[in-house]
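Attaching the record inline, Q. Sequence:
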Amino acid sequence: MRISLIFVLVALSGCMNLDANLLDPGDKITSYQMAAYTGDVDFHLDSSYALPMTDVHVFTLQSQGVGETSPTTIYAAYLGDTSRISKDTVIVYCHGHHHMDFYYPRAQLLANVGGKERYGVMMLDYRGFGLSSGTPTEEGLYADVDAAVSWLKSRGLTGDRFVLYGFSLGCAPATYTAANPRTLRAQKLILESPFASTTSITDDATHLNLPASAVTTLKLDNAQQIKSVTQPFFWMHGIDDSFLNINTNGEVVYRNYHGSYKEAHRIPGADHSTVPQTWGFQNYSTALLQFITR
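Structure, as predicted:
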């Protein structure tokens, strides 16, 4: 009995800081380099995917969440011609842990889906990530994404040309924003490697069948939020994801969706962050294009 108790306490001690781990902003940077970034990234693209630097815009936004008394300055990037926002379809890319430089190749790939700069791509560093000020919070995730959407709306974006894309951690604000629009209602939702909830993460990490409240105050729950999403839904997940098990996470989110249309792409051999390259950039791009244009 004593050995079992010690095991439980040790397991819990590694998870008691789960709030900070789930919202860990990753490595620090001193400036944004975008295409010139030389740090580690998930993958590299060849020169055919290169974007003119005149179409890569880095700027700040003011984000103020529900119940907050003052705004927070966050950084965002728009890939594309800003004069065409009132005409183009725009993908708002909600990234995972790390910062925008790390995810630039992913945003660059999205900008090339269906042809060179066919879509505008908006990404942002949540508060506390990259050079964004403040401390990461659950409400902050939602408010920061909505600040990006508000900026796009002010430049002519309408809901029928607005696509939300979430990867890993970013699946939480993407799903929440699709289910609970504050500024614009997205036309479609794309999730890559989503977690089901803080409970699923806790169970997978500890194997103790503990309530999430035992180790975190966060309420992040994609499996519940997806039930309120009615827009068409595209899900992809690596079958060999060693970080967020596909069966206890992605499959649960996909099964809980009951909206107008959904499609699943289970990628053999792909781990958590290797879906695009394992699937093949062309296959990935073709599937996204068919979904966005259907």
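The domain at 2-26+51-293 is CATH 3.40.50.1820 (Rossmann fold). Strands lie at 56-63, 72-79, 90-94, 120-125, 162-167, 188-192, 233-238, 262-267.

More tomorrow.
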